[in-house]
Amino acid sequence: MSAKLIKGTEIREQILEEITGEVAQIKEKHNVVPGLVTILIGENPASMSYVTLKIKTAHRVGFKEIQDSQPVDISEADLLALIDKYNNDDSINGILVQLPLPDHIDEKKILNAIDPDKDVDGFHPVNVGRLMIGGSEVKFPPCTPAGIQEMIIRAGVETSGAEVVVVGRSNIVGKPIANMMLQKGDGANSTVTVVHTRTKNMEEHCKRADILIVAAGVPDLVKPEWIKPGACVIDVGVNRVGEKISEKTGKTIAILKGDVDFEAAKEIAGSITPVPGGVGPMTITMLMKNTLKSLKFKLGIE
Ligand code: GUN
Questions:
Q1: Degrees (nearest 5) of the Cα angle 299, 301, 302?
Q2: Can you give the pLDDT at residue 123?
Q3: Pocket of ligand 1 contains residue 143 by CB under 6 Å
Q4: pTM of the model as a whole
């Protein structure tokens, strides 16, 4: 049996179309569009390409978008002042400071300075707390976990009462997705186990999973025999394992591998996300959704 592929590239298109339609409606009715600023410090090539894609996507769905690039030696005080400026800018609904930051800047201090009502990354402690409470308290679920949940829902996978096993306990993926899957609500109501580097019998836990979510950052960590036949497998890993020449552009590009041995796993799983083209495209998509939500909260229509 070959698993059904859950393609982030296709789901992204559906969601971006929905967002574009909503933005046009809001513009017509309220004469305003969502505003997103991405703050990029320095010239880290990976960060630059992420930010370029975020800005391009924001433009595509009709947002006002600002890319604010700052030199790598910007002082912490100047960066805090910049965040304060956007906190007080009425045309901006979402503020994103691209991570990682240079060593001389305290990441925690910067993330905590963003107005929680403009924190479309969902990284501010207030939004982490809101996520933990769940239900109508949640404003901005962090983008990668929100993308994972959306993929599971749109793939028609039953989550209520399902055994969900999350591999990895990061603040950005493992902990929030575990929390989201156990809440009451659509795409949730699951029984959740989190396994990590100190777990004694990771394989045994994984074998129980109806939905296996892997965010460990270790290529091919999950072997096919760890997968329950028919399970839904969500692979969050994006591991650079080499380089190749792109057939399309002729440029050198990274060879990416997930945390799951995809070729073998797809013969056992019921549904599975590929790498690339699975969870990856969902993160920026959900950033757009959060930015739109931010404006809707402000207008009192969400
Ligand atoms: N760097 C890599 N991924 C992300 C993300 O989702 N948000 C921010 N702010 N920085 C990142």
A1: 115
A2: 98
A3: yes
A4: 0.96
